[in-house]
Every structure is written in C-alpha cells, then in structure tokens.
Model the fold of this input.
Amino acid sequence: MAIRVSIVTPASPDPAVSAAAAVLERQIRQRCAAMVSIVATAPGTATAIEAAQAVIRLELRAGIGVEGFAIEDGQADGRPCLVVAGNDRLGLLYGVGKLLRDATWSEEAFAPGAWRGKSVPVGTVRGIYLASHMMNFYEAAPPEALHRYIEEMALWGTNAVILHCPLGTEDPAAPSMHKNLEKYRGMMRLARSMGLRTGFLLEPNVGREDIPPEIRYSPYPDDLKKRGDAGMKVCPSKPAGRQWLLDAWTKLLANFDDLPPDFIGLFPYDAGGCGCAECWPWGSRGFLSISRAFAEIARQKFPACRFVLSAWMFDMPPCGEWEGLAREFANGAAPIDFIMADDDEDFPHHPLEKGVPGGLPLLNFPEITMWGMWPWGGYGANPLPARFQRLWGQVRGKVAGGFPYSEGIWDDINKAIVAQFYWDPNRPAAETLAEYARYEYGPESVDDVLAAVAILERTQVGKWQAQLQGQGPSPDAFDHLQRAAGRMTPRARAGWRWRILFLRSQLDRLRLNSEHRFLGEHWPTPACVPLLKELIEIYHGQGAANAVRPPLLARLAQADGKLPAPESAARR
Ligand SMILES: [Zn+2]
Done:
C-alpha cells in the first residue's frame, strides 16, 4: 500500500527551503507511489503530519560548513521525524540528495535510511562542463528533460554548470547557432535558480568561416594528433585579428548582462590555436595573450566572474608551453584565477612536479565521456570506476575541484563518481558506484551491477576490433544485469539510467560474442537495430552528429528518411 510522506518546512519558509522541498517531493513521486505533501508547520497542520508514515523536516542552519548538510533525528509538531539541515541553499539540496540515496525504495513506498551525521564538501569547485553542441543531449533535449537532469546532477554535489558557448550564438544571421541562445539562457537561469554557479567554456580565437583571409590563423604542429583542428580560427597576434575577436566576444557577452557568468573557461585547442611565429608556442604566447585580453574585458562587465585558463594538451608534444606559462605568471597571473589541466590520459606532470604557474589553484578536466568508445555513448552507458579511481590518485589533494567534460548522459555514473571525489577526496569510486546502484536500481541489484560494471569496464577498450581480436568471447555482463533486472521495481527497470546500462550489456553480448564482433559491414546486425534505436530515443539523438549517436544508424536511418546527413564538429 502506498504510504504518506510529509515534508515539513517552517511556516514561512525561506525560498531555498521551498525549493529543496519541491525537489524532494518530485523525486519521491518519480520513484515510488508514495503520497507526498509539503506541510508548512503552522497551527492546524498537525493532522496532516499525524497521518504520515514518514516525516522529513527541512531547515537551514548556519554553522555546519559551507555547502554542507546534516541529517539527524528530530521532532516535528511533537512526533519523531528526520531532519535534513543545510548550511545554505546548496547544502540543503545536497542533504536532500543524500537522504534520497540512503533511502530504501519499493514500488509503493520509500523508507529513509540509517545514515546520520554531518557532511561538508572538501572541493570548492565541483563543476560539470556540458559540451552543448553536435545536437547531443545537451543541445537537443527538451528544456524539461534538461532541467530535470541538471537538478539530478546537483543532488550528487555539483555546484557549477558550464556550457560551450561558441561565437555565432549571439548572431541572428547565424541561425543554426543563434537558436541556442535562449536554451543557454534558460539553462543558466535554471541552474542559478537552484543556487548553482554557471558560466561558459570557449576557445578565445575561434572565428567563423567568413572571416577575412588576412586575419586567419596559421596551422600548428599536432604530431600526436591530440590537439585537433576544427573550425576557422583567427590569429590574435595580428592587430586586426585581435580587434575582430574582442569585438565579437563583446557582442556575445552582451547577451548575458542579466545572467552574469560565475566562471569562464578559456580553452586552448581543438577548435582554437594558431601556429604563427608570434603566437607559437600557443599556450604560453598567443593563447595566453588573447585570454588575458578577453578576461579583462569580461571582468569589467562581470566583476565577480572567475577565469579558468585551461592547459589542455599543453606540451603534447613538448613545445615549452608549461615552462612559458610559469615564466609569464612569475610576476602575477591576473586576471586568471585557476589553471585547469588534463590530457585525456594521465594528468600532466609539469604542474604536479614543478608547481602550478602563478601559484594558482589547480582544477582538473577529466574526460568522462569519450574514452574507449566510438561513437561516444554509441553502445550505451560507459561506467569506468577503476579508470577514474586511478586517475584521481594522481591529483587527490592537489586540485580544488574541476569540470568533468561530458558529451551526453551515458556518462552519468562517471559524473556521480567524480562529483563525489570532489566532495570527499578519499571516497572510493567503488563506494559511490554502490550507492548509485542501490539508489537507481535497488538494493537487491547492487552485487550484480557491480560485477557487470567491472566486466563492461574491461571490455571497453579503444580499438575494439584490434584489441579484442583473439580474446574469445567476453564474460557476460548481460547475465548479471538480467538477474538484477528481476529484482528491481518496474519503475527502476523502466528508468533511462537502467536502460542505458542494460542496453550496453546486450549490445556487448551481440558485438563481442558473435561472428560480427569486428564491426564489419554486417554491423549492426538486425538484432542490434532496436537496441541502438532505443539509445537514440533516450539521447534525443535523432539529429545528432555521428560522434554522439549510436553507430552506423545513419546508414539505416537515411534509408527510411529519419536522420539528416551526418556532420562533423569539434570534440569540445
Ligand atoms: Zn598567430
């Protein structure tokens, strides 16, 4: 039988308490059939509370610690209840997240768990970078789905959401990009309304195809094929080029006067870079110079904004970028506030061994979304707990947080793992994974999900065709997940977080244990098609670029006229 739950707030609740109560109510309703009511404790409300089997009181309480929370036993109108206290607005939200994950869920009811105590985050910048492009989930999903997703990420401890905001977004004459302006503004408004910090990541010398030839960039070395070379770029060492860029960015920033960004990340490569004699080495010369000029302009508009200089792919291969940056920052790093480093594989050695240039706080940029799977998310969920545990070991205690890089929702488990590293640097990935599995799939499924994820991680290798050759059939994650599915509630089994994991195991089984395992002309086999189509539905990926939608469906879908021709785009 469905139970009654009362969420108790003060008689005239702070908007932060009302907002957290609404999140809690929505999540409980979504996860079980319990009847939930929000009760402001005022005369005459005791009856409503008395009828409830579970009573949860929400309150703000200064002194717990910035963005921290406490969960404890207490009283509401004279009867026992559970109290979730937040130090501040975000702390209360994170407390609600912990309460939800600690509870035991059935189809009809939920029972709050036994966890009591206080928890305060260690990392101060617990961000996420949503690469909103290529018609991936972040660009294509309807606003309600996006809003719900941001809310659910925040429940794991995230406190900042940044988007990709390329030049052209501001320009009505570039409709394919301009269409995103209101979406970006909507996402920023929503995130801010939850108390999250917001901002952008951008490549400061990216131009557009119609820029005059005289201000264009020069190619740069990319011997390791890691820096990328997407899009038209402007040389910022040419005075006219520099002016063109600063004018263009000023126009773009004017669209956010009422939504001042808290963070702007300046990104060197992939869509940016210039290899001319004045700009190279890019990271410590051209890029640094235009980033500082950009940050100075932006800071005049948005005085509280903090600027994150990314050192992504610096010295890959070595060209003096880290040394140059250290030299440039020896006499002060202003107006840059953070250095954000990562190289998709091991963390770069330079800042760990020689110190961070300018003594700035360091952030990481873990690649949680692409590694070992092409197309990204193309076969479903990509949980990589062992990988991220290993990489976290390289930076634990050395970073103030970071912005994991995400192209879609298939990396949801990785997002939770990294968010919890930032919250508590000593919390093992395996523990977060177990909490995730218990919460999303139910306590009876945890052991099988953990066993399946270990198999899925082992079989997720970069070049499937080559590296799996000769290994024989893979151990079957599907068997574990099928057993877990039998122990889950129908709601959990229908949830997209389950479907993307289960579909991955089904596709792996078909892919790795059949004669079609080498992705030849016969892939996808007919048995795979409905599974891949379901993934596309979940990702809202009907119009997505090949990189962010299940593989080879373009060919099938073009045949029945459902998908546009594939496009290519920058990774970031
Ligand atoms: Zn140049």
